[in-house]
Specification:
16 strands; five-stranded mixed β-sheet; 433 residues; 15 helices; binds adenosine monophosphate; eight-stranded mixed β-sheet; alpha+beta
């Protein structure tokens, strides 16, 4: 039987046919994210890959696509319903509550990175296992925090040198405001009900707000003259939103207010935002988030406000590749040792071990025969230098050390070999810091 990876999943490999599935690109993106999180004083939280199903149903909201259609759910051996995590926020709230985290500080700033699972129809930019980077800030309801979180997301894209992105922003008020708006929206849609897409007809009852961000042309045509949720905000909410937009202006963060942006998850209230690109066809959302002031309380936790975002690493990488942005060059080992005769082998193995113990990235060609072939291999794995140990070198007790970039070559006495390589490596290392 030939085993194949399940549909909608993919491997991340050192060499892959698709550039966005290459390990070094992921590592680069992850390093930029870790540095970004440090610069904004966010600390990492690691949550489990699966949780009790009811957490996601309660957390994400029963009517959201994620909870109603896309959960990977299974029964464990004790017949308890478990689900693979479809997103991070619900688990983070559970962890916050369970660990009484509010006792540690007034303001909590978490970030996370890792795989999420959604049973959806796979296509370019949409996978059944995808990876997210996200943040959650708990304990502050100020518009300044909203701006900090939005700036952080936009700064990530700036550091990655992405272009042609649009920040969409909206306020969807609180539950009361949305209740009134839902009535107005349904009244508006009722006469046009038959013209709505099939999905929107279902959502008319289950989650009418989601009709607003339908991608279907027929829905969009009808929605052109729909009531705006911004007209239903309370004075406080209006004030908060206006101050946030003013601060974004001051911080020179460009945005577009889009009163149809509601986001897929049920837990948001007040400000919501999304960053979109034109280069990905239908799956053009790189990331998004919003405020969730009642989520913790609804999960039986403290009455604390929160705001967060999540962005998809696959889509970010794909956009970086499409836009041909900078990726650091892939680096191979510092030294590639070629024991080109049988009697050099043991000497080379001991040297390799010693250098590795000195933290010098070293590879050895255990099956070296022809020096030319080994040199090709060294180039292929992008080694910086080679050390040749053939019959001549064993007779003269001098190894040939060759820099593959400059082609400079030097004969080094065996007894000085270790200190020569170590000195060279660490001097270069210092220059590169
Ligand atoms: P969401 O939790 O739906 O707001 O998703 C946050 C981000 O994760 C989105 O903006 C996408 O970039 C990414 N994302 C969501 N679902 C998928 C998926 N099925 N495949 C790839 N990326 C996804």
């Amino acid at each position: 039987m030939k085993y194949q990876i399940p549909k909608g999943l993919f491997d991340i490999l050192p060499i892959s046919k698709e550039a966005f599935k290459e390990t070094d690109k992921w590592q680069y993106l992850e390093s930029v994210i870790n540095k970004l999180a440090k610069d904004y004083n966010f600390e990492e939280i690691r949550i489990p890959i699966f949780e009790k199903t009811e957490l996601f149903i309660r957390g994400v909201g029963q009517t959201s696509d994620i909870a109603s259609k896309e959960l990977y759910t299974f029964l464990d051996k004790a017949n308890r319903s478990m689900s693979l995590r479809p997103e991070g926020t619900a688990s983070i709230m559970r962890a916050f509550i369970e660990n009484s985290y509010q006792q540690n500080s007034k303001l909590t700033k978490f970030y996370y990175m890792g795989p999420m699972f959604r049973y959806d129809r796979p296509q370019k930019g949409r996978y059944r296992q995808h990876h997210q980077f996200g943040v959650e800030v708990i304990g502050d309801n100020s518009y300044e925090i909203d701006a900090e979180v939005i700036d952080m997301l936009m700064n990530l894209f700036k550091r990655l040198e992405l272009k042609n992105l649009k920040l969409l922003i909206n306020s969807i008020g609180d539950i009361e405001c949305r209740k009134n708006f839902k009535i107005a929206l349904k009244n508006f849609l009722k006469p046009n009900f038959e013209k709505l897409s099939e999905d929107s007809k279902i959502r008319f009852e289950t989650n009418p707000l989601r009709i607003l961000d339908s991608k279907e042309k027929c829905d969009q045509e009808i929605l052109k003259s729909a009531p705006s949720i911004l007209d239903f905000l309370s004075n406080d909410e209006k004030n908060h939103f206006e101050k946030l937009l003013n601060l974004l202006d001051t911080l020179k963060i460009s945005y577009e207010v889009n009163d149809k942006l509601v986001r897929g998850l049920d837990y948001y209230d007040n400000c919501v935002f999304e960053v979109v690109t034109e280069s990905q066809g239908a799956q053009n959302s790189l990331g998004g988030g919003g405020r969730y002031n009642s989520l913790l309380k609804s999960l039986s936790g403290p009455d604390l406000p929160g705001i967060g975002f999540a962005c998809g690493l696959e889509r970010i990488l794909q956009t970086m590749i499409d836009q041909e942005v900078y990726f650091p060059d892939k680096k191979g080992p510092y030294l590639f040792i070629i024991p080109a005769c049988e009697r050099a082998k043991e000497f080379a193995i001991i040297l390799t071990k010693d250098l590795r113990h000195h933290k010098i990235p070293t590879e050895i060609d255990l099956h070296a025969k022809k020096i030319q072939k080994s040199l090709q291999l060294a180039n292929k794995i992008k080694a910086s230098n080679v050390l040749i140990l053939a019959d001549n070198e064993m007779d003269s007790k001098k190894a040939e050390f060759k820099n593959l970039d400059t082609r400079e070559q030097i004969a080094v006495e065996f007894e000085n070999l270790k200190s020569f390589i170590t000195d060279k490596y660490y001097n270069i290392g210092k220059k590169n810091v």
